[in-house]
What does this fold into?
Amino acid sequence: MEKAHLALLKLLPASSALLTGIQVAAILLIALVAGATFGIWRGYNPTDYSALTFLETHQGAVRGLNTLIPAMALAAIILTLILLARSYGSGLSFSLYLIAVVLMIGGGVITRLENQPINAIVMTWSVDTMPTTWVEIRDNWWMWHVIRTFVSVAAVTALITAVLTDRPN
It folds into this structure.
């Protein structure tokens, strides 16, 4: 880790445009992820929808976001791992980058293990083939979505704080 850290310090000195670019890109990507989940949470609560409205809205969101959001989150994780390695041994910023990475990975795990399997099931439904348990399935998806929203918002908060503490005085 020490050799990688020293190499990254040479490549990404504190005042470099490349470092700033990586920090901005990481923040932008995870902010878009958090914003998307937040927007769904506040704007599209499916518990108020009829079966048809839920089905059409959920399937449309899955078609548009099911690949894009995880890809942006993965890119944010990779960039933040670079920032984490670069800040090795620098105390607060290292700890905050680590927290950000852990939270981003946590959001990804929730998405992959909880939300996406339900998405795959819902994508097979039509209004005529929805199971009688569709409300329970919907509510389970919603619960995990709310949790990942808060995890994503915490991740972007940790990352922004890390970047602000990682700037030259």
Observations:
- The CA atoms of residues 51 and 77 lie 36 Å apart.
